[in-house]
Amino acid sequence: MRPHKLAMWFTSLSFVFFTLANAKEPPPQVIDWPASGPTVVRFSFGKFKEISSVGKQHVYTTDVTAENLWSKRISQAEFTLYVYDKAKVRIGESWIAISDVKPTGVVKFQTTITASGTISSIELIPQSLPTELQPALPPKTISITVNSVPQGADVKMDGTPMGTTPKYVQVTPGKHTLVFSKEGFNPGTFPLEITPNDVSGGSVSYELGVSAHDTLELRDGSVLSGDLQSMSATEVFIRIGGAIQSLNRNQVKRIVLIQRDSPSE
Q1: Which position among 41, 50, 155, 195 has the lowest Cβ density within 10 Å, counted as fewest Cβ atoms?
Q2: CATH fold of 214-256, please?
Q3: Could you tell me which of 62, 46, 66 has the C-alpha nearest to residue 107?
């Protein structure tokens, strides 16, 4: 009976070794660049392995394979690698580069990245490409601070709401229009031009003029600007463009009065 038990023990041990040996690594994350049109470079990223951590900062390393699917040699290409957690929040970034890769050529290397959490997904953004691939680069953007006096104004850029001032925004080269608005102040427009040679870190500030008229915000969302004449329990009278208009008091949601000097004797 002892040899039989020994044989069973070796069989079980062999099964454990077989299972461990055949345990598969998670499939690589593959990114075909560019995302649309013919693929030029195919990147495959292996498992992100944590090698150290300090507080909330984790250092990972991963094996990368880059395959040139283009018909020409890639002399030099540089990319920013962004990593995200499960909530799609960016938690870190790194930089990778390939050079002198012939058509159908494959290069393998390791890259290290520091992230403030567990990596769930990745993104590659090109930074430097051969001349032939320059049109595939994303538009250049610079970061500027948009402010107003007083602060807290709503700001739109080219018709798109950007938030309230002060606001940190990304701007592409070219001509843009900033529109500022704040309750109790006259709205204003600021022309902004960004040149290809401008760099991040600049700022613009717009001073809003004090409104010269009272403001009535109606319950249907419309706003009237004029001079409030009088108000009773049922009616509101406002002069707009020289003509006095009467409004049902229940139509009015809010009234903003400007400060006026007392009439001189």
Answers
A1: 195
A2: SH3 type barrels. (2.30.30)
A3: 66
Gap between the Cα atoms of 114 and 173, Å rounded: 31
Sign for the pseudo-dihedral over CA of 196, 199, 192, 141: positive
Q: Are 29-136 and 214-256 equal in CATH topology?
A: no
Bridge pairing between strands 214-218 and 252-256:
antiparallel
What does pTM read for this prediction?
0.49
Question: What is the domain partition of the chain in residue ranges?
Answer: 29-136, 142-207, 214-256
Q: Name the nearest CA neighbour of 179 among 198, 162, 155.
A: 155
CATH number for the domain running over 142-207:
2.60.40.1120
DSSP per position, the chain: -HHHHHHHHHHHHHHHHHHHHTPPPPPPEEEEESSSSS-SEEEEE---EEEEEETTEEEEEEEEEEEE-SSS-EEEEEEEEEEE-TT--EEEEEEEEEEEE-TT-EEEEEEEEEESS---EEEEEEEE--GGGGGGSPPP-EEEEEEEESS--EEEETTEEEEESSEEEEE-SEEEEEEEE-TTB--EEEEEEE-TT--TTEEEEEEPPBPSSEEEEETTS-EEEEEEEEE-SSEEEEEETTEEEEEEGGGEEEEEPPP-PPPP-
pLDDT tens for 32-49 read 998 878 899 999 999 999
CATH number for the segment(s) 29-136: 2.60.40
pLDDT digits (tens, 9 = 90+) for 217-248: 888 877 787 888 888 888 999 988 788 999 99
